[in-house]
Specification:
- The protein folds into two domains: 228 residues, Uridine Diphospho-n-acetylenolpyruvylglucosamine Reductase, domain 3 (2-Layer Sandwich); 190 residues, Vanillyl-alcohol Oxidase, Chain A, domain 3.
- The chain has 497 residues and is of the alpha+beta class.
- Helices cover 34% and strands 19% of the residues.
- The mean pLDDT is 93.
- Its cofactor is FAD.
Amino acid sequence: MTLRMPTPDEAVLARRAEIVAALRAIVPGEGVIDDADELRPYESDGLTAYRQPPMVVVLPETVDQVAAVLRWCHANGVRVVPRGAGTSLSGGALPLADAVLLGMARFNRILAIDYADRIAVVQPGVTNLAITRAVEEEGFYYAPDPSSQIACTIGGNVAENSGGVHCLKYGLTTNNVLGVELVTIEGEVLRLGGRHLDPAGLDLLGVVVGSEGLLGVVTEVTVRILPRPETARAALIGFPTVESAGQCVADVIAAGIIPAGMEMMDRPAIHAAEAFVQVGYPLDVEALLIVEMDGPAAECDHLVDEVARIADANGAVSLRVSNDDAERLAFWAGRKAAFPAVGRIAPDYYCMDGTIPRRRLPEVLRRMSELAAHHGLGVANVFHAGDGNLHPLILYDAHKPGDLERAEEFGNDILRLCVEVGGVLTGEHGVGVEKRDLMPEMFSDIDLKQQQRVKCAFDPASLLNPGKVFPTLHRCAELGRMHVHGGALPFPDLPRF
């Protein structure tokens, strides 16, 4: 492992006792953790290949405490790493040796539900699934549904712009969040958006969703809740090759059909999931599509027939349509459990996240198989086929010398391939540290500096989650330099403030 992180500030480390005492004054009781053994659960997030115990953990319970912690850290030049449930798969919550880890787990209350306006106001520590559980008796639900929805929190979903199997039709987190309360590194409490659609002015809410904890700490989220569809039916379709399944995905979308969800699994993932949950997946196919339609019953029936016709044209060898909701949920149970299921067939796996144009699916899946052979490692594919969001699971053994490094390089090659065919480095897991050094594959130096200027507008001293997203950390003063030649400013016609 050769991950490069910001060099710890020895002066800050020397003040550790002072920092812990100051935090205890702000968050009394059991809200501050500084014991080495008790810090260990926080040393990594879901990307467990990288570990670093934090200097100290603070667990505030109120917005005033969050603001006070950030205000003190800003005044004293101490770095802060925000953390939700720690399910991030890109190292977004990886601690720093000289940073305060700000855990938001105690912000776990649903504050308000308004069925007339179809919104829920929740604290960031509320789990994704808990929102649906709170409103389902009234026939509502929260649409984004990551596979980790039983554990991941809405604050983390906002940080990473998480999706899930139903994001094809209903959008990612950014499409389902109406407003946030945000605390800046200076301790200022801001409200962006609210209970209404499309607030006036700059789209700062769109900047914050997906900002990976680099701009501020979210302390409240207003989300959109939706009425449950009248009907939902799922089709389980087997194919003789992954290429034919990929082509079927492209053809379904090209036909103007937008399923509620369209997921794909290849043979290793199918066998692992079936052994794990035993829901009746076919084991004699190379690829499996789960395609769900929702809406009025007549519409669902018609679209299921259309999908079956397209699948048949692409050589499908099996087709099973759910007869009731229990059977539909069983189809999804295997997909939802695919990640832990794959953990039974290899000592370790590395979960990737890249997105490609749907029409390139057959080519990319073929080239991914070639890369697997080149690197000498297995790969199981489980992904959101409908929007081209790939989640290859690279199989390796961390106890074998060189295996982790090969897995990392394999993963890097997959992400480079995604960019090469017109895709992007991430679909929902974020950049974090995992994809940080690959950012130049997708963005020019000008692009990256412009993104960092946005960071500087919120966090001039770069104290919030440093070392993440950007491969080169510039000081804000460097990014703000203006070249003056011959006494003449560039673009003299622009107003200066």
